[in-house]
């Protein structure tokens, strides 16, 4: 890969011993990007949206107050990171069958009508087209893409909703019962290097 920008999102609440972080390191290395922008949701948490954020978001741009513009400033920065990226690598540890709360806060800040998607007569249309996403999904006991895995299909749907349909999954699941599952994830990453 040349002249590419990678946006890396880390959402594990562990800085040490995190499988999703370890595998994301390997994915980013395999991609060989020119620029990597890292957004660590543990070290730099994204606040949950609130009533003031909703009010600012749904106020037309030309009518927003200075306070409303300030309220959306971080969201605008997060969207700009996405817009500038060619590839988005998201570390997704599965917590209690779903995604971490920190990742959900990031999602809520980047899903914005008229910014990352729009409503049309045929339904919602994503605006972040032409990008690739790699989800690095790690789970201690939940089998990835099983009926009890709500994290992976949610992230696929979310990315598709904002226009990112080229989504690849690097999976390391059932790690508590079979730690060798990480070997399969490493093989998937090695195939990234060959691509």
Automatic annotation (TrEMBL):
Pfam families: Flavodoxin_2 (PF02525). Its cofactor is FMN. One of its GO terms (molecular function) is oxidoreductase activity, acting on NAD(P)H as acceptor. It catalyses: N,N-dimethyl-1,4-phenylenediamine + anthranilate + 2 NAD(+) = 2-(4-dimethylaminophenyl)diazenylbenzoate + 2 NADH + 2 H(+); 2 a quinone + NADH + H(+) = 2 a 1,4-benzosemiquinone + NAD(+). Its EC number is 1.6.5.-, 1.7.1.17. FMN binds at residues 12, 18-20. Binds 1 FMN per subunit. Keywords: Flavoprotein, FMN, NAD, Oxidoreductase. Gene3D superfamilies: 3.40.50.360. Residues 4-190 form the Flavodoxin-like fold domain. PANTHER family: FMN-DEPENDENT NADH-AZOREDUCTASE 1 (PTHR43741), FMN-DEPENDENT NADH:QUINONE OXIDOREDUCTASE (PTHR43741:SF2). Quinone reductase that provides resistance to thiol-specific stress caused by electrophilic quinones. Also exhibits azoreductase activity. Catalyzes the reductive cleavage of the azo bond in aromatic azo compounds to the corresponding amines. Belongs to the azoreductase type 1 family. Homodimer. This is FMN dependent NADH:quinone oxidoreductase. It comes from Leucothrix arctica. The gene is azoR.
């Amino acid at each position: 890969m040349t002249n590419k920008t990678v946006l890396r999102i880390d959402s594990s609440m562990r800085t040490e011993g995190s499988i999703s972080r370890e595998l994301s390191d390997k994915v980013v290395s395999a991609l060989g990007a020119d620029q990597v922008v890292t957004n660590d949701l543990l070290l730099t948490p994204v606040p949950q949206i609130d009533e003031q954020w909703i009010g600012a978001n749904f106020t037309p741009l030309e009518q927003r107050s200075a306070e409303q513009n300030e309220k959306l400033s971080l969201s605008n920065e997060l969207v700009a990171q996405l817009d500038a990226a060619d590839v988005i690598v998201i570390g997704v540890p599965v917590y209690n069958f779903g995604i971490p709360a920190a990742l959900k806060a990031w999602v809520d800040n980047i899903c914005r009508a008229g910014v990352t998607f729009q409503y049309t007569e045929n339904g919602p249309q994503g605006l972040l087209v032409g990008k690739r996403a790699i989800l690095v999904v790690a789970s201690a006991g939940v089998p990835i893409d099983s009926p009890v895995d709500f994290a992976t299909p949610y992230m696929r749907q979310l990315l598709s909703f904002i226009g990112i349909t080229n989504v690849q999954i690097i999976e390391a699941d059932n790690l508590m019962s079979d730690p060798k599952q990480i070997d399969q994830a490493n093989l998937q990453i090695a195939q990234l290097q060959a691509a």
